[in-house]
Write a structure and sequence with these properties.
Helices cover 42% and strands 18% of the residues. The chain contains 20 helices and 18 strands. The strands form four sheets. A nine-stranded mixed beta sheet has the order 10-11-9-8-7-6-5-2-12, with helices on both faces. Strands 1-15-14-13 form a four-stranded antiparallel beta sheet, with helices on one face. α5 packs parallel to α6. It starts with 9 loop residues before the first helix and ends in a 13-residue tail after the last helix. 49% of the residues are buried.
């Protein structure tokens, strides 16, 4: 690799050049080592998580956001509805999301579950009151996230699912997805969920290697993940997605290859491949975060390294990422959106398509601790602090802690970022129909895409009226979205 050193990127370039000798040098490493891509290397080194996060660029108010949401829902187009219960049985050492560890006392655990469900349903009622069209607009997909919502007792799961079905506009086309963990998705729980109409499940495998699971404080085994996949297939779930992480402590490229091959062998309908992120989401402003996990502390990581543990370098992580693309594409899967590799029979998950596809980009509403909601022109977040959450609910207030909006240029840039994140071609006709004053193939955006094309990251096809990312461009899509595609007030790129 030919590395062009700069004073502030020396360490990242060294990490980029540290490779596993048994595997090829990744194309992304060659691209990132070039001086014209220093801003991209700076972005990936800062370790944000921003693929599917689209905040506004200007401060707003909850009232203004709710009014905008109601106007968008008044169109009668399907939207994405999701809810969270933050309870987990344990705390993974890398997890930053707002969670509450379940009590080991069965009585206390059941009381806490009931309290969280009570609060969630009261919050949902507040949303329905504040946004009148929320009850009548059709729900395209309803997702039940966490935490680990499948830890809820059967009676509480029943209460939540029944409430949402009764109070929101579920149609025959509405699909239901629920998130769980291998140790909570027992066969009995799967049968209960399927009986309630949940046709899709997703769960974190992270790795099938029990040693790496234990290092991460994941209290399940690889075989439990295998059992969930097999049971779900027998019960009749239409979609079963499994999540893998690369960059875990002591993970090797060869070990990650074994995880990928195992997931392919088990025929998951969707395989999600996520990089381990260690920098605080709160610091980068790229995702909702509620806790500071031990692995986020550089001193903690350094102590583990001193004891002989290995943190994969940036170069090794890109070897893992490019290996994943090669194996998963060879198995017939397509990356759509970024990180999500889908079998052709099921295609993109409905919830992702609703929010990201260039011809949709519909509203989303997130209810529960840490929930995030968005329209084409703004976003709002629910608090991640349990105390503040319960205080707001008890006082009859929506627990929204911030809201942002976009001006027209920001809306255009945000639409392009969403569309790029799907890893599908951007279409000039779809863009022009929504933004008659703008063009992907002329003016400002043509200059942006020509520049990306000159660096081997995109292809501009004027005859077809499309722009698409190359394979390396798809690998670096997060960095491209957040440094190259920005409105005037957004994410000023690092100078090239």
């Amino acid at each position: 690799m030919t590395a062009i050193l700069t004073s502030d990127l020396t360490e990242p370039l060294v990490s980029l050049s540290r490779l596993d000798g048994d595997w090829p040098e990744p194309d992304a490493a060659r691209v990132l080592s070039r001086s014209e891509n220093a801003h991209l290397l700076h972005y990936v080194t800062s370790d944000p998580f921003g693929s599917h996060v689209f905040p506004g660029d200007q401060p707003s108010t909850p009232e203004a956001f709710l009014a905008d949401l109601d106007r968008e829902l008044a169109t009668g187009l399907p939207y994405f509805l999701w809810t969270t219960i933050p309870i987990c049985a344990y705390h993974c050492l890398y997890c930053q999301f707002p969670i509450v560890v379940q009590s080991r006392n069965p009585v206390a655990a059941e009381e806490a579950a009931r309290r969280w469900v009570d609060a969630n349903l009261r919050e949902a009622e507040l949303w329905l009151h504040a946004v009148p069209h929320l009850a009548s607009a059709p729900v395209g997909e309803f997702c039940f996230f966490g935490g680990t919502p499948t830890l809820l007792p059967a009676s509480e799961l029943d209460r939540m699912l029944s409430f949402y079905r009764r109070n929101f506009h579920f149609t025959p086309e509405t699909t239901l997805r629920i998130e769980g963990s291998p140790d909570s998705l027992t066969r009995e729980k799967l049968e209960l969920l399927h009986a309630h109409g949940c046709g899709k499940i997703t769960f974190g495998i992270q790795t099938f290697d029990d040693r790496l699971l234990k290092l991460s404080n994941r209290l399940h085994t690889g075989e439990q993940a295998v059992a969930v996949r097999r049971n779900a297939a027998e019960i009749g779930f239409a979609r079963v997605d499994g999540d893998l992480i690369y960059g875990l402590l002591d993970q090797s490229v060869t070990g990650f290859e074994r995880d990928l091959r195992r997931a392919i062998e088990l025929d998951f309908t969707g395989i999600v491949v996520t990089k381990l992120h260690l920098r605080a989401f709160e610091e980068t402003g790229t995702a909702i975060a509620g806790v500071d996990p031990p692995w986020q502390d550089p001193r903690y990581r350094a102590r583990l390294a001193e004891k002989g543990h290995h943190w994969p370098s940036l170069g090794e992580q890109y070897q893992m990422r490019e290996l994943a693309v090669a194996l998963l594409e060879r198995s017939g899967r397509t990356e759509y959106p970024t990180m999500y590799f889908q079998s052709p029979e099921v295609g993109c998950g409905t919830w992702k398509a609703l929010v990201l596809d260039q011809d949709k980009q519909r509203a989303e509403v997130g209810i529960g601790l840490g929930g995030s909601s968005g329209t084409r022109r703004g976003a709002a977040n629910v608090t991640v602090t349990p105390r503040d959450y319960f205080q707001s609910i008890d006082a009859g207030r929506l627990p929204i802690v911030n809201a942002t909006s976009l001006d027209r240029e920001g809306e255009i840039a945000g639409s392009i970022r969403r569309a790029l994140s799907t890893c599908q071609p951007l279409r000039e006709d779809v863009h022009g129909a929504r933004f008659p004053e703008s063009s992907l193939l002329r003016g400002r955006w043509r200059r942006v895409f020509d520049d990306l094309e000159s660096r081997g990251l995109a292809v501009v096809d004027g005859a077809a009226g499309t722009v698409h990312l190359t394979r390396t461009g798809r690998t670096l899509v997060e960095a491209i979205m957040h440094t190259e595609i920005a409105g005037p007030a957004q994410n000023t790129p690092v100078p090239k």
